[in-house]
């Protein structure tokens, strides 16, 4: 009898699962990823000057469905702590790096943040949970369009996705409390320093495509003085464009 009831349960459950077009939600994998990142923070604390990330940052990592930002064929690898290809020779960054850059920006709920290098839109989606508005700019039109569609599908209404050369920032929505650049150039773009609010922070990789890049934290003081700090070696795709 019990077997029949179980079987009946399975039969009844089957169509419900089959009808759920959103697929598995990977919540457990996301929680494990957040825990893995916490461990990596401890291991790298010497470089990054912190033992922990803000709990809100880890909460955002545990909440944003990274599998919705990677191509279908990489879905089952979406919660591994590593970068993955997203087409057009570009990559979605490693989750630890996304969390680190987010934490370094010290995001506050009222902030407007500029991201250069939308790519999949994952970094923007993580930031969008922590700030008022994210303006993100992507130079490859197809990637920008795909990201815009994805934000719409996921109901992420506080992300403004722009197509263009982010070297020049996005003056229309400036100044920004924080700026994050997810592609590496050999210098800090002066237009971005200009578009940073006094008291603001910018995080970006600096270095050539074939040399060691340094994850760099730029802080603009209230009087406009700029301080830069190199934190740790990283590897990002190159910042392209006409500059
Ligand atoms: N933040 C992304 C990572 C994308 S990789 C994510 O979460 O998935 C970096 C992206 O920067 C690529 O999509 C690349 O096309 C873009 N990029 C490179 N140079 C750029 C430029 N000058 N302006 C805007 N985007 C640029």
Detail the topology: elements first, then pairings.
Elements: H1 2-19, H2 27-48, H3 55-63, E1 84-87, E2 90-92, H4 95-105, E3 112-116, H5 122-128, E4 133-138, H6 141-153, E5 159-163, E6 176-181, H7 190-195, E7 196-206, E8 213-220, E9 226-234
Parallel strand pairs: 3-4, 3-6, 4-5, 6-7
Antiparallel strand pairs: 1-2, 7-8, 8-9
Helix pairs in contact: 2-3, 2-4
Residues 90-93, 116-117, 119-120, 122-123, 137-140, 143, 165-167, 182-183, 237, 239-241 line the site of S-adenosyl-L-homocysteine (SAH).
Structure description:
The structure is a single chain. The chain is of the alpha/beta class. The chain is built from seven helices and nine strands. It has one domain: Vaccinia Virus protein VP39 (Rossmann fold), CATH 3.40.50. Helix 5 links the parallel strand 3 (112-116) and strand 4 (133-138). Helix 2 packs antiparallel against helix 3 and helix 2 (27-48) packs across helix 4 (95-105). The radius of gyration is 20 Å and the shape is globular. Residues 3-20 have low confidence and may be disordered. Bound molecules: S-adenosyl-L-homocysteine. S-adenosyl-L-homocysteine (SAH) is lined by residues 90-93, 116-117, 119-120, 122-123, 137-140, 143, 165-167, 182-183, 237, 239-241.
């Amino acid at each position: 009898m019990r077997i029949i009831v179980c079987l009946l349960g399975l039969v009844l459950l089957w169509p419900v699962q089959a009808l759920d077009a959103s697929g598995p939600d990977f919540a457990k994998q996301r929680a494990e990823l957040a825990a893995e990142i916490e461990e990596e923070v401890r291991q790298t604390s010497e470089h990054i000057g912190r033992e922990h990330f803000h709990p809100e940052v880890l909460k955002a990592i545990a909440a944003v469905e990274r599998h919705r930002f990677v191509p279908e064929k990489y879905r089952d690898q979406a919660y591994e702590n590593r970068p993955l290809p997203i087409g057009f020779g570009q990559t979605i960054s490693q989750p630890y790096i996304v969390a680190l850059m987010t934490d370094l920006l010290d995001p506050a709920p009222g902030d407007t943040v500029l991201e250069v290098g939308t790519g999949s839109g994952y970094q923007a989606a993580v930031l969008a949970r922590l700030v008022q508005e994210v303006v993100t700019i992507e130079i490859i039109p197809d990637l920008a369009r795909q990201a815009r569609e994805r934000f719409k599908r996921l109901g992420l209404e506080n992300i403004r996705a722009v197509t263009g050369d982010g070297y020049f920032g996005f003056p229309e929505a400036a100044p920004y409390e924080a700026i994050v650049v997810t592609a590496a150039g050999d210098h800090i773009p002066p237009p971005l320093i200009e578009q940073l609010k006094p008291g603001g922070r910018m995080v970006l990789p600096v270095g050539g495509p074939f040399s060691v890049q340094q994850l760099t934290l730029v802080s603009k003081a209230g009087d406009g003085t700029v301080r830069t700090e190199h934190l740790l070696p990283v590897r990002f795709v190159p910042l392209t464009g006409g500059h």
